Amino acid sequence: MNMLQENNWLLSVGTFLPLLGVVVLLLTPKASDQMVKLVALVTSIATLAVGVYTAFKFDFDQAEKLQFVADANWISVIKSSYLIGVDGISLPLYLLSMVITLLVVIYSLDHVPSPGKPKAFFSLLLVLQTGMAGTFIAQDLILFFVFFELVLLPMFFLIGVWGGEQRQYASIKFFLYTMFGSALMLVAFLALFFKTGAESFSIPYLIENGGSIAKNIQIWIFAGMFVGFAVKVPMFPFHTWLPDAHTQAPTQGSVILAAILLKLGTYGFVRIALPILPDAAREWAPYIGGLAVIGIIYGALGCLAQTDMKRLIAFSSVAHMGFVMLGISTLTSFGVNAAMFGMVAHGLITGMLFFIAGSVKERYHTLEISKLGGMLTSMPRLGWIFGFCSMASLGLPGLAGFWGEFPAILSAYNPAEGLNETVFRVFMVIAALGTVLAAAYLLWMFQRIAFGTAKNSSSHDHAHSDDLHDVTTFEWIAWTPMLLGILVLGILPNLLFSVFDPAVKITLSAFGG
Amino acid sequence: MFVNQFLFLAAVLFCIGVYGVIARKNAVLMLMSIELILNSVNINLLTFAMRNGSTDGHVFALYIIAVAAAEVGVGLGLVLLVYRNKKTISVDELSEMRG
Amino acid sequence: MNLLAAETEVLAPLASGWFLENAWLIPVIPAIAFALIILIGKRLPMKGSELGVASMLASLVLSAGAAYQWIQRVNSATEEQFVEPVIRSWSWWRSGGFDFGIGQHIDGLSVVVLFVVAFISTLVQIYSLEYLRGDRRYTHFFAALTLFSGGMLAMVLADNMILFLLGWEVMGLCSFMLIGHWWEEDANSRAALKAFFTVRTGDVGLLVGISMLYFAANDWTQENLGLSGFSIRGISAWALSGEPNSTVIMVAAIALFIASIGKSGQFPLHTWLPDAMAGPTPVSSLLHSSTMVVAGVFLVARLYPVFFVGLDILGSGGNLIMFIGAITIVISAALAFVQNDIKRVLAYSTVSQLGYMMLGLGAGAWLPAVFHIFTHAFFKACLFLGAGSISHSASHHSFDMKRDMGGLRKVMPITFTTWIISTLALCGVFPFSGFFSKDEIIDNVGNNGYNTFMIVGLVGAFMTAAYMTRATYLTFFGEPRGASAGHSSHESHDDHASHDDHSSHGPHESGLLITAPLMILSVLALGSGLLNATPFGESWERMKLWVEPRAVEVVDSTYSGGPGESLIVNVPSAGEGSSKSVCGTSTPEIGVCYAPKLEHAKFKWSKAMLSMAIVFLGMVVSWILSMLLFTKRDARLVGLTQRVKILGVGHRFLVNKYYLDDLYEKVIVRSVAYPISSAAYWFNQNVLDGILHSISNLTRKFSGWVYKNIDQRVVDGTVNNSATFTKSVGTAAQPTQSGKVSQYGALLFSAAAVAALVLVIINT
Amino acid sequence: MQTLNIFAAQWVAPTIDYFGLAPELVLAGGLCLVLMLDLFIDERKKWMLTAISSFTLLAAMVPVLMLALSETEVRTMFDGRYVVDNFSLVMKAVFLLAGYVVVLLSSSHIEQGEYWRGEYWFLLLTSLLGMLMMASSRDLVSIFVALEFLSIPAYMLAAWRKRDPKSNEAGVKYFLLGVFASAVMLYGMSLMYGVANSTLLTEIGAKFTATGEFSAVHALAVVFVVVGFAFKVSAVPFHTWAPDTYEGAPTPVTAFLSVASKAAGFVALVVLLYTAFPLAQDIWQPFIWVLSALTMTIGNVLALKQNNIVRMIAYSSISQGGFVLMPLAVAGLAGSGTTALRSVVLYMIVYAATNLGVFAIILAVSNKTRSGEISSYGGLFSYAPTLGVLMTLFLASLAGIPPLGGWIAKFVAFQSLIQSQSTWGYALAVVGAVNSVVAFGYYGNVMREIWMRPVPDNDTTLISVPGSLKLALVITAGATLVFGILPGVGLHFADLAEIAGAIIR
Question: Final residue of a domain: which of C622, C649, C676?
Fold first, then answer.
């Protein structure tokens, strides 16, 4: 895999610019909130600008190659280096992280959750941004690991400080879960390092030499990575941190969590686990697929059982990521393309749903579905946006969700050679059933929240009618791009597929496409 | 030479000393038991030195004796300190911090 | 056989034209209009409705033009020549070697349906201008209505299954929005949910079917036609190529058929249709005449070769489609007898008419079925709009025939006339359109050797005549009752408060905006049949000429010609007496064909007379009974059902549907089984409804259980327990930290001693 | 008698390389100066002592640096009983810097209460001197002497608050157990001497089990010697003194014990393992394996239950010791000796920086709250954000979360375990991985207090941090961050540190 070196400063700038912003933030006096917000806003805008410039410089005709590659000496003693670069797989996620952060910052301008402290809040957001962007550009396992972990602490505090009632439990749980996963992942990385002759941690190098490892060892190493990534995704048995984290996190936290953090896991599968350990991947694929479909059905059932709007959306994430993992588990470039698309789509849609949940909470002071209702009468715009997102989320053709869901199901019909077709076809049918359940819980939620007549909010005294104002300006600014994204990607999916496809093909060359 | 007897003696002294440390509640007695252990060590060293015909053992033994003296000095000082504050030198009284 | 040797001649290129080439505009216009209405609709003088109407008119013009030019095209072709459909496609997106196209596929079928849909939609929109005037969500309504038509149109001219699926789903979504238009009422929103959900359940079949077909067909189509496995044309050709593995194509066909069952409200998934009446009347008429419910039938007609091969149509002893169709006909017709709500009567009649179409398709009567789509659209739309007009102007928004109607023929002459015409058409009385299509179906079913099903069809015709007569009598004859008698208002069926300005004065004829569509439709209900009037001989069978694809085209793969040009080889037609199609059974090696060859029944007056007699019998019987029952209050009939056990039971089975529905709603709410009811009505088809509900109810309970026990207790529990476990280990270890020096010493030394001992043992 | 005369006749005075001894000499001079001055200057001038002792420590750094830069790699004295090699130099630097930070921590703390500052500095410097000697000792005798040299002052420092029974208790426990442990160790040493017929480590290394087969004596000797230092590094089950002593002793002393004297213990342990009985790895590897696993685990689970911050940190430092021990459990295997050594040294460096930082915060906060309860940290972030953030950084580093120093230390430890590619190595790695997760349980708990809990009886008076503490915080925090973001720096020194005459496979 040859790499393009020019403009290799771009990625570093785009990644570490937020940290610069953090430094400035720390210097700004605590009192002047406006100043703090301004700095945060400017930083994230600048970051996005760099990102856009990167995309502009990106050579889409060679999307399969790593571009803007920078390779600097970092920890020579353990043969790990500061090797970064983006290709067709990384770039969209890299940009997505920047966009989402900017939108979240904009949304936060007048939605800093209690207990205030905007300075700390925005600093954490920016640190988070660095971690996410870095994870997507890192081409060295250790570097990847560092960024992967760098995300933890800020999210831990976002949940724990600005979260809901049970925030402390949720945050600790989130942290321990992920840390447990990444600890084993690290062990797996090290084993991989030594089994490939202790030469280098660089991912391209390992992709070349990883295949030579004996199969049974590959399987063990893969197991380690699997735990690490599956916790992040999250896949079925490891998912229980998600609902708590999502439910308790502040709106911004949930949005970032859903839009980007979950993708780190799936991205890890695509970028690291599959190409480096193809044989093990083949062995594991059926189990991954199985867990994925379990996740689909299971998440849907979980949703049907919820009475809390936000928790319902959280569980729907489990189901959607199930589709993504199903696509990945087919080991075909078609399936993985679907998965990649699903990642972006889910990022936009579920992120949007969490935004809405946040605004609902802010207006009704509750998320109990039974206490909501008649949103379409009291707040038509919000209601219709909500409907739009629900429809997108249940995979309505013409909206982004569909292109992640349907191709994933389709790809399961014939997985890569060497995988058991019948098993995957069964998965396909189950997944198709999953779409029905998806329709069930989403529409059910929509019907109960948006339809009917507005419940008089005497049950919770705070909610006066003046709280039930419709979408505000900041919300419009923050939401419009995502809504447009959902629509545009739904109509022109090729925008993304054309970027993913070449890179994915290369990545999966070990599986014969 | 009669190496084994000496070693055996040392071993016995060591065990007595250890027993004393564990069984005694009186700080001073514990100190004395530790001294017993140190002496058993000295006996060991000298025995081996004699057997191997090297002076290292003697030197080591001398150092141990000297250091032991210092230790006892510090130890008794501490015991006095405790006694002044608690009016007792039973170490079981010293269990304010635990868990 | 050496077909290459067969004599061949090159034909002139087929005529095409702007309208055909750019037919793809037809769905695009409404889509754009939808966006505009949403964005700026509220600010427009007519609240965006004008946009809707205008866009529908535009699509109507375009599709009319397309139809015209298609006819030109057909005429330009020779008798035996295959009329190449006008296919244009663009690559939409590609991924991993898969190419998803987007494009149009214009042939007779799509032209017909396009025209019908555009036409009906236009009328319905015009009608709605009056009917929904002042509704609180006027704009939203028109937006949804427009997008709805757009979805249907897109689906109709889709050239590949993905686009087809897209239109299909968009329609589902809009039906959700339209049925639930007055969603303040819980019942309406639940009906909407039910509709969407039921249809969605069927869609699993569509997803699975498309996927299977794609992977089964793709290689073949790529190789032989250079088309993707999604393209409808490719799939059809592949299905008939003798290539496909019989089980695969059968499973695929069944999967697809499940989808169309859901969409077209066939038994057993028909339960959502009556509830869908919760929507405003124009919606019901659009849904039931030309769009939503027709989609399922259209799917079967569109991918006919797949079903033809997969389900072995024309095989002996009938097939799944026929059975479903037949059952649906009878069941729903029976239900239609006991309805008091006029719209529900019509709804069930729609279901049973769809049953006819399915029956026809299943029996290889492709053309009559499509023709029935055509005619049925007009008179059913007319009937619904009529019903709407009544409730709008006479019965104060009530649809209850027994309570609020009767004797309306005097007050609303236009509505009455149009209604009568359409009713006759529906019953299939001779000069009216229904006769030519429905009778044709029954005729062909028999002709293809399915006599039992033909009898079912005739029974259906009898029942149809009967229940329509009953409805007509109740509505227009006898004494005015309730609201139509000008009585004071009562809580009414769909109380959209803003409408009560009408309730001030008594029953009267509706305004022009309502009656004009009625009249236009009734004219068509009367005349449209003549487009394929078999009785008057070949020259009248226009539909057959224009719409039915010429069965056989055998292309020499060595020959490369532009679209429309092709080498024709005369394939020896099937042996005499056999009703098998050449293409259906086998294909010449070098050949490709896109549609099975189908026989057509010769029209015989004798058969026609027979069915006519049955229909009239039905009308007369029903008329007399209704008169005795409802006007004369004849002692022998009134309360008959109470007196005669068996009749009573049967009657209740039918009537109690809604009562049962409520029961099951309650079952949901309280989630308690209702043993008596389920035991008493266990074989009542409405139990299906209960099953539907209790399934969802069950799922919900089950998921609740899973969530509570598996997720929270087991999965999450292990996590939390591990935490508590570590803590408890700590507690266990704490006593070592007693704070007692001597114990510390003991621990220290004993540990050392043990370690030494162990190591001594293992190392020596 | 005869023999003695002969030896006496042969005796010649050893040549002493004063440059090599320079750091020790400077330190010795400094502490004498402190002792003297303390007698003569009056109370108001006592601050001079602080200045002098800190100056002494920095001054002692100079020769260390010069030695490091001088071209002679290894200087041996007293025919190999006292060696100045890179390993010792690196460790000496660590000791001196750690000592300097401890001085910074102490200076404000010991003002409070009318206690004897002079003695405090004197004892502190003496103990440090012992550590410097420990770093160079390559002979059983000199190791023993150095050990006592650094321990005895430490006993007294622990009991330094004479009126505080807790402090007394701390001192006495530390003393009794320490002496007992060293006695046991001595018994082991005597046996070792008996077997190898020399007290010089390299000679022992050459002779000891050179043949490969062991007798009970060998095992006994090794175990007892290791126990002696396992006590020093408070490895479970020889840790029992640590929590009580740490809690009872004055906080700066606790910092000193938990960092410097622990490091000294590791130094001696490593030297012994690498030079005295490297060939006996079959004996000590399993032993260390068990010690490490126990230490990590027990330390963690007990730390989970603490609600006194110092005690919690005590247990945490116990479990950290387990992580340091981890690589030593495979140090005897082919190819992993070097990385194991590197890992231990790096871990000591990083751990020293981070843990001292933690104690700096504890001191700063206790200035205000006057309480050791973890709950007293509630809402710290809201009224003292800087302290809160710094504490978070330090704790995160201890928990081994990138990009803070701790992660690279843990990483290298794991690396050397897995490099051994032995089942035991993998097993211990997994144990370590699990433990590093559990550890976050209590670190996270403190973070939670700082960030998410309300301020106790919301007394949000600002905390006044004395300048010396500020300096200490800057040093430690800076080091923690640098080690984490540019791990090359720390690894460079760790890589330099080779033990002269070590037998590494």
Answer: C649
For residues C708 and C640, state if they share a domain. no
- Measured in angstroms, the CA of C700 and the nearest CA of chain A are apart by 6
Give the number of other Cβ atoms within 10 Å of residue D42's Cβ. Answer: 6
Q: Is A167 on the interface with D (CB under 8 A)?
A: yes
Rounded CA separation A329/A326 (Å): 5
Name which of B18, B40, B89 to mutate to probe chain C: the one with the most chain C Cβ atoms within 10 A of its Cβ. B18
Nearest to D220 among C723, C741, C756 (CB): C756
Angle between helices B56-86 and B27-52 (to 10 degrees): 180
- The answer to whether A453 and A437 have CB atoms below 8 angstroms apart is no
Residue from C727, C728, C737 whose CB has the most chain D CBs within 10 Å, to mutate: C737
> Is D199 in contact with B56 (CB distance < 8 Å)?
yes
Share of chain A above pLDDT 70, in %: 96
Question: Average of pLDDT values for A404-409?
Answer: 88
User: Per the domain annotation, does D8 fall within a domain?
Assistant: no
Let me know if residue D239 belongs to a domain. yes
Interchain CB distance below 8 Å, D411 and A186: yes
DSSP 8-state secondary structure symbol assigned to residue A259: I
Flag if C756 and D180 touch (Cβ within 8 Å): no
ipTM of the complex: 0.80
Identify whether residues C397 and C463 lie together within a single domain: yes
Residue C8 in domain = no
Q: Which of C728, C740, C760, C762 to mutate to test the interface with D (most CBs of D within 10 A)?
A: C760
C577 & C692 share domain: no
Residue range of the domain that includes D91: 18-496
Question: Chain C: residue nearest B18 by CA?
Answer: C749
Q: How many domains does chain C have?
A: 2
D172:B94 CB<8 A: yes
CA atoms within 13 A on the CB side of D101: 31
Q: What is the average per-residue pLDDT within B40-62?
A: 90
**Is residue C750 included in any domain, yes or no?**
yes
Of the candidates B51, B59, B77, which has its C-beta nearest D141's C-beta?
A: B59
Whether residues C621 and C746 fall in one domain: no
Number of domains, chain D: 1
Q: What is the pLDDT of residue C576?
A: 34
**Domain match, C512 and C590 both:** yes
What is residue C395's predicted lDDT score, i.e. its pLDDT?
Answer: 64
Shortest CB distance from C749 goes to which of B22, B24, B94? B22
User: How far is C764 from C304, CA to CA, in rounded Å?
Assistant: 86
C359 and C465 together in one domain: yes
Domain residues for the domain of C736 are 687-763
Q: Closest Cα of chain A to C279: distance in Å?
A: 14
Q: What is the mean pLDDT of residues C606-634?
A: 80
Interface of D with B (CB under 8 A): 3-4, 7, 140-141, 144-145, 148, 152, 155-156, 159, 162-163, 165-166, 168-173, 175-176, 179-180, 183-184, 186-187, 189-191, 193-194, 197-200, 243-244, 247-248, 305, 311
Q: What is the pLDDT of residues D378-401, one digit of tens each?
A: 888 888 888 999 999 999 999 988
Give the domain ranges of chain A: 296-513
Residues D270 and D499 sit within 8 Å (Cβ to Cβ): yes
C627 lies in the same domain as C692: no
Nearest CA in chain D to A114: D452
Spatial CB neighbours of C747, under 8 Å, sequence gap ≥ 6: C736, D237, D240
Whether residue D68 is contained in a domain is answered as yes
How confident is residue C558, by pLDDT bands cut at 50, 70 and 90? very low
Looking at A318-372, which runs of residues are DSSP E strands?
A: none
Do B25 and C745 make contact, defined as CB atoms within 8 angstroms? no
Q: Which residues, at least 6 apart from C315, have a Cβ–Cβ distance to it below 8 Å? A: none
Single residue among C621, C649, C677 that ends a domain in this structure? C649
pLDDT tens by residue, D350-386: 999 999 999 999 999 988 888 888 888 888 888 888 8
**Interface contact D111, partner A, CB < 8 A:** no
Classify strands D75-77 and C98-106 as parallel, antiparallel or unpaired.
unpaired
Residues C571 and C701 in one domain: no
Q: Which domains does chain B have, with CATH numbers?
A: 26-93 (1.10.287.3510)
Q: Is residue D4 part of a domain?
A: no
